[in-house]
Amino acid sequence: MKLRYSAASPFARKVVIAGHVLGLAERIDLVGNEEDPGDAIRSRNPLNKIPMLLTDDGQAIFDSRVILEFLDHLAGGGRIIPTSPDARFKTLTLQALADGISEAAVLIVYEGRYRDKEHYSPRWISHQQVKIDKALDFLETQSPGAAVDVGTIALACALGFLDLRAGGAWRASHPKLVAWLDGFSGKVPSFKQTVAES
Predict the structure, then answer these.
(1) Quick one: which of 176, 195, 193, 181 has its CA closest to 153?
(2) Which of 101, 152, 106 is nearest to 8 (CA)?
(3) Long-range pairs for 124-132 at CB < 8 Å and ≥24 separation?
(4) Can you name the CATH fold of 2-74?
């Protein structure tokens, strides 16, 4: 299988970590994100987004949530996505919340990277930051738990992205989340192994 990814993407990182957790990492070749619009792998996703997984039989699977479901299925099912309804929907909801943090943080980065300075919108940045802050405050009072699943993997990657792109400013006011992330990192070696340099 081939995974089109960027090391800095929290969405791609969660797929890589899940591959390790599920014992599938050796079956997945990591392919850097080419900017060439004619790139054969990139052209398989009409949204032109990463991550995207090309299966052994050439099927293109995206986005990260669907890829994680595919990998869990490939590993026998019920490994990182619980099968019992209560646990399943709790885990999927945590993943949605964590992905929302990542999405808002990515939009803040893109505002500075892709928008001309004269069109830069502090109001838009503030709108995204409020989402992040509210989600983090909620998670500070609701322990994500000790399981290693799609929810906790997504959350760890979201927090890691905030460390990478926002200097870890979240840490000062969220000590329980910091402790939780330290615990997760200790249990899941691939979390440290996938830290992006920039």
Answers:
(1) 181
(2) 106
(3) 128/104, 129/104, 131/100, 131/101, 131/104, 132/101, 132/104, 132/105, 132/162, 132/170
(4) Glutaredoxin (3.40.30)
Residue written as token pair 């808002």 = 104
pTM across the whole model: 0.94
The answer to whether residues 183 and 142 touch, using CB atoms and an 8 Å cutoff, is no
Q: What is the CATH number of domain 85-192?
A: 1.20.1050.10
Q: How many residues in the chain?
A: 198
Task: Locate the domains of the chain by residue range.
Answer: 2-74, 85-192
pLDDT in tens, 129-151: 999 999 999 999 999 999 999 99
